[in-house]
Amino acid sequence: MKLDAPYQQKDKKNMSGNNVTIEKHGKIAVVRFDRRTNLNAFSQDLILELTDIARRFQEDLTTQAVVLSGAKNAFSAGIDLKDPASWEDLNDDVATRQRFYRGVRLCQAWEDMPQITIAAMEQIVVGAGCAIALACDWRVIGKSAYLYVPEVKIGLNLQWGALPRLITLVGPAKTKRITILCEKMGAQQALDWGLVDEVAEDGKTVEKALELAEIAASMPAATTRLLKEAVNATANALHKTSAYADADQSQLTRSFRDGIAAREAFTKGS
Q: Which range of residues forms the domain containing residue 235?
């Protein structure tokens, strides 16, 4: 789908937050998140903002497809390890656990949206960036982009509910290779393994995602929403059972001494 200038001028509505812009094109919305720093890594503020947006879409009866796009130079470099809000001592166990589960709630909110959701990914898709993309229905990746799940390398477990979603897409053996060996995966391999649905020219992922969105939005809306819910209910039936404690496990892995050393080396070198 390529929107011409008159159509954009007539039908486009912009709603902006601190890190996120929403563009409405009739039945289609484009959500762009861009912190303009740290390769678009997820800060706590960004997590909360995208969660709120997903929940608002759950009550939206007119939008039928949503494209999720990051920055042009990086879909996202993962969680921002330098964000002070991620590390501050809240001095309250309930508040700390609530913070750890923000990413889980973010991805669940995007998965629960009734609209067809399509991630349009350019250049760098790392960790948390992979997690939110896995919560979308379809994924489009740029030809030069790569996926990378380095959590184990820095002493953290893969959370945000991403592990069961990954297993559902590629199976247990490939999931172990992706998460334990921490190999960077190029666009063609991601397509071959079933992690993404389309490969686009660099800089054209949103355009390719809009083509899919246009087709999805042209289908009978109620039936499309019903079918998406049915597929998710079947495919994801055990996801919450297997990942309900992944954020609690994240608190545990943060205390491992070799993980602390790995993260200190990472932050010093970056």
A: 5-209+218-269
